Batch of 2 targets.
Target 1
Amino acid sequence: MQNILEQYKSVAEAEVKTWFEVGTVSDFPENSGACIKYKTKQIAVYNFARKDKWYACQNLCPHKMEMVLSLGMIGDKDGIAKVACPMHKKNFSLEDGTNLAGDDLKIAVYPVKIESGNVYIGFSD
Ligand code: FES
C-alpha cells in the first residue's frame, strides 16, 4: 500500500521535465473530473470552467487508498479550489494538496497547461 502512495509527489511548475499531452480541451467535461494515466500513476484532471482554471492531482485518495478523486465534486472554500472525495467527503486543496480539515493526509498536485487547445500535465520524471 505504502508504495502506491510514494509515487505521488507534488510537482511545481519549475520542476517540470515532461509536459505530457492528455487530450484536447473538449475531451474534458466542464466543472468535473476525468482520469488519465501517466506511467504507473493515475491522475485526476479537472476542467474547472467556473474558475476558468485547470487542476491535476493524484487520483488516489490517501484516506482509504481508493482511486476515486477524479469522481469527486469540485468546489471552492474561501477562494481555494478543492475536491471532495466521493467516499467520505474529505476535502483537499487543488492548489497545494493539503487536507482542508487540517488532517495529516495530503495529495500530490501537478501543473496543467493549455496550448493550442491541447491539455498538458507537468511531471518531474
Ligand atoms: S477514501 Fe477518500 S475520504 Fe475516505
Target 2
Amino acid sequence: MSPPPSGGREAPTEPEPVLVSGFGRASASAAVTTLVRSPDHLDELIARRAASGGRALARGLGRAYGDAAQCAGGLVFDCRGLDQVLELDATRGVVRVEAGCSLRALLAAIVPAGWFLPVTPGTAEVTIGGAIAADVHGKNHHRDGTFSAFVDELVLHTPVGRRTLSPADSPEPFFATVAGMGLTGVISQATLRLAPITTSKMVVETRRGADLDQTMEILERADASHHYSVAWVDGVARGRCFGRSVITLGEHAGIEDLPAHQRTDPLAPARARCLPVPPGLPRLISAPLIHAFNATYFRRAPRRATREVLAYPPYFYPLDALADWNRLYGRRGFLQYQYVVPDERADVVRLVFERLIAAGQHPSLVVLKRFGAAGPAPLSFPRPGWTVAIDLLAGTEDLAATLDRVDELVASAGGRVYFAKDGRLRPELVAAMYPELGRWQAARAELDPDGLFVSDLARRLHLVAPEPRFAPGGRDE
Ligand SMILES: Cc1cc2nc3c(=O)[nH]c(=O)nc-3n(C[C@H](O)[C@H](O)[C@H](O)COP(=O)(O)OP(=O)(O)OC[C@H]3O[C@@H](n4cnc5c(N)ncnc54)[C@H](O)[C@@H]3O)c2cc1C
C-alpha cells in the first residue's frame, strides 16, 4: 500500500461535530456526521462505534421537524449514500430500494413503468428509511393505512448483526423498527409493494369549507367517496369563518380523464419546478403576513367545487415547489404540532384551535386529515379519527406552556402527538399516548442490547433507558 500524503505518521483526526437540526430548525444539537457508502461500510461503522462505547443514529433527509434525527454528542450516519433503486419488477409492482433513496427519486423510476407509492407523505424529500422509521401516512390513511403496510421486507443493521425482517417471519423486530424512529438500528434497504397507475396525473376536486363544521363534514363524507382527502384550514380566521378551509379530494387519473394531447404519453414524468429559498434570511414569516396569506389562499380557491387534472407533484407535494422553505422562519425556526384524536372526541379539534388563538398564537399552516384503522407497530402514530398538523413560529411567548396544556387535552381525549414532528413533548404523557411503549422497548432491547442507537427525541421522552455515560450537551466518550 502506498503511504498516505502525510507520510502516515499522524493519527487520523476525528471529524469535528457540526450542528444537526430537524426541519423546524428550532432545537439543533452537535454531532459528528459520516456518510454511509455501502451496507458493508455501515456494518464497519456500527461495529467501531459499538466498540468505542459511543452513541449513534441514522439520518435520512432531515425532514422530521423536531429532534428525532439528532444525536447530541454522538455519531450520525448520513444514509443518503445508500440511494440506489436496486431492482424493479415492473410486472408485479415490487421494488427493492436502498434506504437512503428519496421518494422523489423512487417515483422518477417507478411512475414511467406504471407504478406509484401506495402511501406518500406531504413531501417527496423523504428517504425510504425515514418513511419506514416514522411509519409515515398520507392523504389516504382512511383507505390504505401507513407506509409500512406495503413493506414486504427490510434489512436492518444492528450491533448484534445484520437481519432481514418481514412482518410474517419476524413480526416483533419488524414492527419495532417500523415507527421505531431509528432506535432499533439502521435500515439499509427495503422491498416495497407498489400501486398500479395508468397515468402520472391526478383528478383533483377542490372546494371550500365555509367553517370548521362544514370542513369536517365534507372530509368525513369523503372517506367513502375519495381515495385521497385533505383540508388546508385557515388557522387564524375568527367568528363565522372559524375553521374555513380549502379541501382537495383526489384520485389517480385514468387515460379517459386526460385531455387528448396528454393521452399519447400518459405516464410522462412530471416536470416539477422548484424555486430555492436562500440561506441566512431573517425571519420573514410574521403574524400580519400569516393572516394575509391565509385570507388570500382561501379567497383564491373556487367558490363552487371544481375538478381539474394535475400532475402528481402539485397535488401530493405542493410545498416542494419552494426548496428550503423552512428558511423563511429565520434562525429561530418553527415547530409543527401534529396530533390525532378519536372520532368521538372530534370536539378537541375546535378546542385546540380556540386555545391557540386565546394564547395569542398565529398558526401559519394547518392541515386536517382523516385516519382509518391503526396498524400493528407499537409506536405507529395513526389511529382512527382526526389528525391536525399546525405550524407555529418557535420561541413566541407562552407557546411552551400552551402546548403543554394542549398535550394534556389530547392525551385525556385518547389521542397522541406524532414523534416525527415533535421537539417539545414532556415524557410524562408518552405512556398514555403510546400504551404499547413497553412492548416496543422489549423488542428494541433484543436488537440493540447496549443502547447504541439513541436520539435527542428518545432521551427527552425517555423512550430508552438513561445512558450513564451521556453528559447532556457534551460528547459521550
Ligand atoms: C413538508 C413536510 C411534509 C410532511 N408530511 C408528512 C405527512 O404527510 N405524513 C407523515 O407521516 N410525515 C410527514 N412529514 C414528516 C416526514 O415524512 C418524516 O419525518 C420522515 O421520517 C422524514 O424522513 P427523512 O428521510 O427526512 O428522515 P429524517 O428526518 O432524517 O429522520 C427521521 C427519523 O427516521 C430515522 N431514520 C432515517 N433514516 C433511517 C434509516 N435508514 N434507518 C433507520 N432509521 C432511519 C431517524 O433516526 C429519525 O428518527 C412531513 C415533513 C415535511 C418536512
